[in-house]
Design brief:
Layout: H1 2-19, E1 23-26, E2 32-35, E3 42-47, E4 54-60, E5 63-68, E6 77-83, E7 86-94, E8 102-104, E9 111-114, E10 118-121, H2 161-165, E11 171-175, E12 178-188, E13 191-200, E14 206-207, E15 210-217, E16 229-232, E17 235-239, E18 243-244, E19 249-256, E20 267-273, E21 281-287, H3 288-294, E22 295-297
Parallel strand pairs: 1-7, 2-8, 12-22
Antiparallel strand pairs: 2-5, 3-6, 4-5, 6-7, 7-9, 9-10, 11-12, 12-13, 13-19, 14-18, 15-16, 15-20, 17-19, 20-21
């Protein structure tokens, strides 16, 4: 009996450790190197804060350098290393006295995606393939009076959710065992569309009660008192599943109702909430740089 309890405790500790995000400590006075497995070629390094606070540089195909650009004590942030066939993510903290200058990701820590068609998380022994929840195209049909946030509009015949299933970009995070990835940013005339996929890696169904969208505008330059101003962005839900079952993935598509200005340093915040059904909150901010880099125009 004691042996069984001991094994269960070990299993719990092992699982808890594995569930934690990798944490990388950087400094303004030392260069820290981050390596990914040789099979993955680094294409871009995305930082959770503006480059004036910390920056990165791709040194080799599977090696990048990260360093703080100020000697101030910065708040915690994150780093996303985008490769040709996968994504690596880690938390970033600043400790100017750090003595560790090298971090290495393993294959078990990658979020894989396959040529814009599907993505999946690589676990030690299990590879979970993702199928997009919405497969039936809406082509040649008109979506009428889709309501949300007290707004209405009509989408023309160009709208085809097969186009939104394609992963033209993968910008996102995994939180509370829920993957959240923006996969398309499109514009047509004055209309802006964003699609994202959510993958449930947990054993409980995720209830998509409501989505909040905000424009975050940073006004104060003092790092100790940064408090972004929030402006509500109203939108319409074009495709909005209400539940994501364990192991399942779903596609969401929204259209912003009004035009907005996204200046340098600003971002769009997307918050998915379960409400009283689960209270698991998924919060992701899409930076101005990523927004315009991945936006495509529909003629």
């Amino acid at each position: 009996m004691k042996v069984s309890i001991f094994l269960l405790v070990l299993l719990f500790i092992s699982t808890s450790i594995k569930a934690q995000n990798k944490s990388i400590v950087i400094s303004a006075f030392k260069v820290v190197y981050v390596k990914v497995p040789i099979e993955f070629k680094i294409e871009e390094v995305q930082l959770g804060m503006e480059e004036k606070y910390f920056s990165s540089k791709i040194v080799k195909s599977n090696l990048c350098a990260v360093q703080a650009n100020t000697n101030q004590n910065l708040p915690p942030s994150n780093i996303s290393i985008v490769c040709s066939n996968g994504l690596f993510q880690a938390d970033i903290t600043v400790n100017h006295g750090t003595l560790k200058y090298f971090y290495e990701f393993s294959k078990d820590e990658v979020i894989l995606f396959n040529e814009g068609k599907e993505f999946y998380k690589n676990d030690s022994n299990v590879v979970v393939s993702v199928e997009v929840g919405y497969k039936e195209p809406i082509k040649n049909k008109t979506l009428k009076t889709v309501e949300n946030h007290d707004a209405k509009s009509t989408v023309g015949d160009w709208f085809d959710n097969i186009e939104f299933q394609k992963d033209r970009c993968l910008l996102g995070t995994i939180n509370n065992q829920i993957g959240f990835y923006v996969n398309n940013i499109m514009s047509k005339g004055e209309n802006i569309y964003i699609s994202f996929k959510m993958k449930n890696f947990s054993n409980l169904a995720y209830h998509c009660e409501f989505l909040q969208t905000f424009l975050l505008t940073k006004q104060k330059k003092n790092i100790a008192t940064i408090s972004p101003d929030k402006e509500v962005l109203s939108y319409e839900s074009l495709v909005f599943p209400k539940e994501i079952k364990p192991g399942a993935s779903e596609l969401f598509i929204i259209q912003f109702n009004n035009s907005f200005s996204l200046a340098k340093g600003n971002s769009i915040q997307l918050i998915m909430d379960e409400g009283e059904k689960g209270r698991r909150l998924i919060d992701y901010s899409l930076t101005q740089k990523s927004f315009f880099k991945h936006m495509i125009n529909i003629e």
